[in-house]
Amino acid sequence: MRYADLFKSNLTRLFDAFRTRTGFAPSTAARIVARDPKFLDTFMARDLRAGTYDAVAARFAALWPADVEWPSDIDRPEPAEVEEDTLVLVTRRLRSRAHGSNVAAIHPDWPDGHPWPNDIPLPPQKGSRNGA
Fold first, then answer.
1. What angle do CA 11, 30, 7 make, to 5 degrees?
2. Of 19, 31, 52, 115, which alpha carbon lies 20 to 30 A from 38's?
3. Helix/strand/coil for 84
4. DSSP secondary structure string, 17-76?
């Protein structure tokens, strides 16, 4: 197996796990992690450089959801420094997805099964420091 094939396989698995947990569309996940909305559409067809793999894997390491196990057969690099707005976007998405099936408990008029929008902060929850 060529290293390029291994890198592509690893990134495909990381993107799949990340997208499953966050619910981001492929282009959004690619924009967040690879800084290129077309990355998922193009990286399999091109020769993947080691530097590109390292940069994307390091961003994955920084943005990886705490409740998702990093694949044990993929070396986890040191996390990259990620822009604050990107961290906020991913954190909000993870919080909304965690409450996605229980949004009615937060806001009784919210349609069941619809995740909370990323651009609206979650209301305080009962039992939280800021809630009733």
1. 15
2. 115
3. helix
4. HHHHHH---HHHHHHHHHS-TTHHHHTTTSPPPHHHHHHHHHHHHHH--TTSPPPTTSPP
pLDDT digits (tens, 9 = 90+) for 57-78: 999 999 999 889 999 999 999 9
DSSP structure string for 100-114: GGGHHHH-TTSPTTP
Q: Quick count: other Cβ atoms within 10 Å of Cβ 27?
A: 14
More confident residue, 126 or 116: 116
Contact 6, 17 (CB under 8 A): no
Distances (CA, A) of 125 to 21, 25, 63, 100, 122: 22, 28, 25, 14, 8
User: Closest by alpha carbon to 53, among 93, 13, 85?
Assistant: 13
b/e 98-121 (16+ beta carbons within 10 angstroms → b): ebeeebeebeeebeeeebbebeee
Structure tokens at 58: 């390091």
Does residue 111 register a pLDDT over 50? yes
pLDDT in tens, 35-48: 999 999 899 888 88
